[in-house]
Structures are given as structure tokens and as C-alpha cells.
Model the fold of this input.
Amino acid sequence: MAIALYLLVGYLHAKKRLQKGLPPLAYHRWLVSRAERGRVDPRFQPPDATVRPYYYNANGQPIDMYTMPPPVYDPNMARPPNYEGPPPAGSTKANPSQWTESTQRPADEEYAAPPGPPPSALAPQGTGNTNPFRN
Done:
């Protein structure tokens, strides 16, 4: 009974303070909704429903968020080394191109698939039952 009385009196006291334009006190603040508290306390007001697609600077001008990116490289710097010359001393790969005469197929040669299906890797595991659905 005491708890119900506390809840009722606290709720009525909080509503009365809200009607006067005062914020509710800490011990009965939780009894009123956030929307009701937003009428007297700006911290509980709902956010603006306007959409702001731009960020603005101090002068009120929109800031362009998608400016041109910087160049990938500095054209004034030296170019990276290229490896078109002879291979360096001590290298194991003589030809930088991996396509040699042995790996290239002549253009007039046609590809032929091997005859028949591939062999099965599994042995048949029949149980000897005559029911075809129980094998």
C-alpha cells in the first residue's frame, strides 16, 4: 500500500511541477515520460527532423566533403626502377617471362578431352539387399 501511495503522490507531484514549467525532481523524475520532460528541459527534446546533407564552416558555407584526391605519385620525383635490362648478378631466374617454348601450345593444335569418364575413387558399398532404396 505504501509503494502504491508513493507512486501515485510522486506522479502527481511531478505532473504539477511540469505544469508550472519546472523540471521534475530526481526522486520522481522517472515517473514521467521523456516527451513530458522535453517540454521543460531541452536535453530531453526530440532531435530536429531536418536533414542536413552538408557540414558547414564558421562562415555558414557548406564544406565539400568530396574534394579531388591528391595524385598517386609525385610527378617531380624520380621514376621507380624498371627491370628490362639483363638480370642482376646472382639471380636464379634467367628469363623474366615464364612463357617458354615448352609451356606454349601451338595455335593449330586442338585440345582433346581424355576418352571416357574419370575412374571412381570409391568402391561400391552395397549391402546385398534386394531393395534398391536401401543399398
